[in-house]
Amino acid sequence: MRTKQDFINGLSKMKRNVYFNGERIDRTDEVQMDCINVIGTTYDEAAKPENEGLCTAVSHLTGNKINRFTNIHMSKEDLHKKQDMTRMLCQKVGGCIQRCMGIDATNAIYNVSFEADKVKKGETNYHENFKKWVTRFQNEDLVSAGAQTDVKGDRMLRPAEQPDPSAYVRIKERTKDGIVVEGCKLHISEASVSDEILVFPTRALRPEDSDYAVAFGIPADWDGLKQVVTIHNVKKRQIYKRGVHHSGTDSYLLFDNCFIPWEKVFLAGEYQHGGVLALLFALFHRHSYSGCKPAIGDTILGIAALAAEVNNVHKAEHVREKLAEIIMTTELGYAAGYTASDLGKPEVYMPGMGFVPYGPGSYIPHSIYCNVGRCLSGEAVWREAEILCDIAGGVVATFPFEKDFANPETGELLMRYTKRNPKMPAEDQAQFWRYLGEYLCSGMGGVTNVGNYHGGGSPIMEQIAITTQYDIESRKKVIRHIAGMSGGDGDALAKKSRK
Ligand SMILES: Cc1cc2nc3c(=O)[nH]c(=O)nc-3n(C[C@H](O)[C@H](O)[C@H](O)COP(=O)(O)OP(=O)(O)OC[C@H]3O[C@@H](n4cnc5c(N)ncnc54)[C@H](O)[C@@H]3O)c2cc1C
Fold first, then answer.
1. Which of 183, 357, 373, 446 sees the fewest Cβ atoms within 10 Å?
2. What average pLDDT does this structure show over 49-53?
3. Residue 351: CB atoms within 10 Å
4. pLDDT digit string (tens) for 6-29?
C-alpha cells in the first residue's frame, strides 16, 4: 500500500492538463494541497495498526492487503466496514473524505461489465479488462474519480435528441484499436487530484442512445483530456491556525477526440447495461453517503452544541430540540445505510422483475435503504444550516478578520467584546467563530451544502427509485381489506416477508 507521500509524488509526475482560473497548474500546486491533505488522511489512517480491520481489506483478486478504498465488496461485512470507515475518516477531516467516487464506480463497473459480457456471449472482454484495471488500482493503491454527470443540454431531450450530439459523452468513432470519445463530464469531484478517472453513463438509455453507453478508465492526465477545476479552499489563516483545513475540488472534464484503446473500455454500445451502470453507481454512492453524511451530522452537532455553549444558551429548551433533530437525522441516515449493508446481496432491482441475481458474486447494498437514507439526510442539509445559523446568531457572519485581533490598536477591545460564556477562554471563543464563519458563510460552505444535496443524485432521483421499487400495491391491498373494499388482502405484506 502507498503512503500519503507516495500519492503526492505520483501526482507531481503527471502531465499538466489541469486549468485553474485561466492558468495551467501543477497538480501539487499550493491551491490543491488542502484537498490533497484530506485524501492523504486515507493513506495515513490505513497505515495505523489499530485501523487495519476497518481501513484495509484482502483483495479477492490477488490475496494482497489493500486499502479498503480499492476493495470490491465480497460480503455484508465489507459493506458495513465501508460505511464505518467512511464515517470515521470524514469525522477526522470535518467533511467529505474525497475518495469514495472511485470505490463506488469500481464496484458498479465490476458487476455491469460481467453482465454485459454474459449477454454478448464472448464477443466482448469488458470484465477481464476491468479486472486488470482493478488489480492495478489495488496494487498501486490509486485514487480514482467517478465521472458520471454529463452536461445534459436541454433537460427535456434524451441524449440522441440533443442539438449538440456531445451534450452527453459519446463514442464518436470506433477503430480496430479502440474508440474515440467526445463530450464533457462536469462537477467531477477530486478529478484534479486523482490518478485515474472512471467514466460511465449518467442515465437510462434507449437503443438510439447506444453511442452514449460508454464506460472506460484512463489516467487523469490522458491525451485528449483537459480538466478545468474549481477549488474550494477556505481563507488561509496567517496567525490563528486551524487544526484541520478541509477542502475539495471539482472539474469539468473535456474529452476532445480522446482515443481510448479497447483494453481500457468496459462498455461500448450496450445501452441496457449503460442504464443499469448509471443506477448501480448511484446506488453504491448513496451507500457511501450513509457513512459520510452521518459524519457531517457529527460535525454539525459538535458545532451546534459548541455554538450554544459559547453563547451560554446550551441549557435552553429550543437548543435541546435542535440538537435532538440533528442527532435523529444523522442516526436515521446511518441506520438506513446499516440496513442496506446488512440486506446486501449479489442482486439488483430490475423493473418488472424485482430483485434478481446480478454480477459475479460481489455484494450490492439494498436499494430502498440506500435511497431512503441519502434522500432524508441530503434534503436535511439546508435545515441543518438553518439550525447552525439560529443557534450561532449574527456573529458568525460579521466576525472581524484575524489581523484586527493581532493589531494592538483594536485587538484588546475586540477580545473583550468577543467574550460571552464566562467559563470559556475568550481565545477559544474567537477561534470557534472563525471556524464557524468559514463553515457556514464561505464559498466552501455553500459548495458543501449544494454538494451534500445533489451529490449522488438529486433527491428527486432517490424519490423515483424509492417509489418505483417499493411495494406500494401490497400496502394498498392491506388497506382495501381493512376498509372493507373489494380486492383486499390482509395478508399481502406478511406473504411477501415470508418469501
Ligand atoms: C459539489 C458537487 C460534487 C459532485 N461530484 C460529482 C462527481 O464526483 N461525479 C459525478 O459524476 N457527479 C458529481 N456531481 C453531480 C451530481 O450528481 C449532480 O449535480 C446531480 O446528479 C444533479 O444533476 P445536475 O447538476 O445536472 O442537475 P439537473 O439534473 O439539471 O437538475 C436541476 C433541476 O432540473 C430537474 N430536472 C432535470 N432533468 C429533468 C427532467 N428530465 N424532467 C424534469 N425535471 C428535470 C431536477 O429535478 C432539478 O430540480 C456533483 C455535484 C456537486 C454539486
1. 357
2. 97
3. 8
4. 999 999 999 999 999 999 999 999
Give the span between the Cα atoms of 439 and 322, in whole angstroms.
18
Q: Indicate the length of the chain as a whole number.
A: 499
Angle between helices 271-310 and 367-379 (to 10 degrees): 40
Q: How far is the CA of 294 from the centre of ligand 1 (A)?
A: 22
Q: Which ligand 1 atom lies nearest to the CA of residue 248?
A: 1
For residue 470, count CB atoms less than 10 angstroms from its CB and return exposed for 0-12, middle for 13-18, buried for 19 or more: middle
Residue 499 is predicted with a pLDDT of 53
Q: Choose which residue among 185, 187, 464 to substitute to test ligand 1 binding: the one with the highest number of ligand atoms within 8 A of its C-beta.
A: 187
Q: How far apart are CA 325 and CA 440, in angstroms?
A: 18
Q: What is the pLDDT of residues 117-135, one digit of tens each?
A: 999 888 999 999 999 999 9
End-to-end CA, the chain: 44
Distance from C-alpha of 129 to C-alpha of 177, rounded to nearest angstrom: 14
Tell me which residue of 187, 228, 246 sits closest to 33, measured CA to CA.
246
CATH class of the region 277-472: mainly alpha
Q: Which residues fall within 8 angstroms of residue 436, CB to CB, at 6 or more apart?
A: 303, 307, 388, 392, 396
Helix axes 317-342, 367-379, angle to 10 degrees: 160
Report in angstroms the alpha-carbon separations of 216 from 105, 106, 265.
11, 11, 4
Whose alpha carbon is nearest atom 48 of ligand 1? 458
496 pLDDT tier (thresholds 50, 70, 90): confident
pTM recorded for the entire structure: 0.96
Cβ < 6 A, ligand 1 pocket: 101, 146-149, 152, 155-156, 187-189, 250, 447, 450-451, 454-455, 457-458, 460
Question: What is d(CA 378, CA 235) in angstroms, rounded to the nearest whole number?
Answer: 26
What spacing in Å lies between the alpha carbon of 457 and ligand 1's midpoint? 6
423-445 average pLDDT score: 96
Pairwise CA distance, residues 271 & 215, whole Å: 11
